[in-house]
Structures are given as C-alpha cells and as structure tokens.
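Lab notebook, bench 4. We co-purified these components, and the gel suggests they stay together. Before we commit to crystallization screens, I want a quick structural picture of the whole thing.
Request: model the full complex, all chains together.
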Amino acid sequence: MTIPVVQRPVRSSIETKLTAALAPVHLEVDDESRMHSVPAGAETHFKVLVVSDAFEGLGPVDRHRRVHALLAEELAAGLHAISLRTLTPAQWQASTTPFRSPPCAGGSKGG
Amino acid sequence: MSDIHEAIRQTIEQNRVVLFMKGTKNFPQCGFSARAVEVLKRCGAEFKDVNILLDQELRQGLKDFSSWPTFPQVFVDGKLVGGSDILLELFEAGDLQKMLEAPKAS
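Here is the predicted assembly.
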C-alpha cells in the first residue's frame, strides 16, 4: 500500500482540510502526541473540536465519519488517534462540558 | 464475506453490548479504551470485551467492517454506537443509559 504524503506539521494539514470542507465557525486542533508513548516529534495523537453547520441533521457517528473521510490520508500516513468533538453552532453555544483527553495507558506502540 | 467479518458479525449478534478495545476491561492498554470501559461500567452495563491487540487480522478487519478507523469501538444491538468520544457524549447527555436500559429490539 502506498503511504500518502501529508503536509507537515500534520496539525496544519488537518486545519487546512477541515476548514476547506466544513467552513467551521470554530476549530481547535491540538497535537497531544507528546502525552503518548511515541517517539519525540511524532505527530500521531490529535484532539479536534469542530463547530460547523455541516453537521446539522447528522448523528454523531455520521459526523465523525465525515471528519475521518476528510482526514483519510492523515490516518493512512500515521495519524493514530483522533479525539473528536463535532458540534453544530447551536450545540457549541449551549455546551458547558470541557473537552478533555484521557491519560495514555501505553498500548499504542507498534501502530 | 470474509471469515473475519463473519466472526465479527457473530460476536455483535450474540452479545448485546460489545467493546472492541486495546487491552481488556480489567487491564485496558489505551486511555481511550479505559475511558470506554469506565463509562460502560458506570452505566451498570454487562458487556463483552474483545482485545484487538491480540489479533492483527481482527484489528484491520474490524476497521473495514465498521468503516471506522480507530479504537475503541462500541456496538449495541449489533450497531456501531461510536468510539470513546461519542460514548462519553451520550453518557453525559443521559442517552447512553437509556439505550442500555431499553429492551433489545427484536
């Protein structure tokens, strides 16, 4: 299988693609790779908050699938974990719960 | 259909709630898998855990089966509910508890 070439840093690649496809009113992309058991400089674990009208009428599984599809190249090229919160602008306004990632438990070595 | 997809289908048909995860419910090996276990336990749900780290064929086969690229993956009544982010969102909204209480649709 050919591994796609992805723009670096991966954070920029993610931001560019999600911005182009979803026109988010709010977008946060955090590289959390340093919190995990991966080599220094690896860009493998991301946390993404996307607020977009594009999610209107979609259930959570379909929202996440839409984002996974947009980031298929990144996922194929080594993006290993993506923690996602996908909200409509109305849900974002009403949201009170913080978006946090759990601590690593060490099992991600070896892809 | 491949053998691995048939095996997955049987697992999710024979168990109402299935968590495909890294590690086991007693020893999760990934923070996201650990969070999924915690959420299901807090719902008081009985669930079957399947450790995808032990089987590379299953690990890839499940991604294709469910069109979902990451783990953990939670299935209820044979349907993908999502990964740990969605599970937590549903739990915080109280929807997961309702889903797990409701009798199995036949």
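Chain A has one domain: 11-94. Worth comparing against the SEC data before the next meeting. Residues 10-22 of chain A form the longest helix (13 residues).
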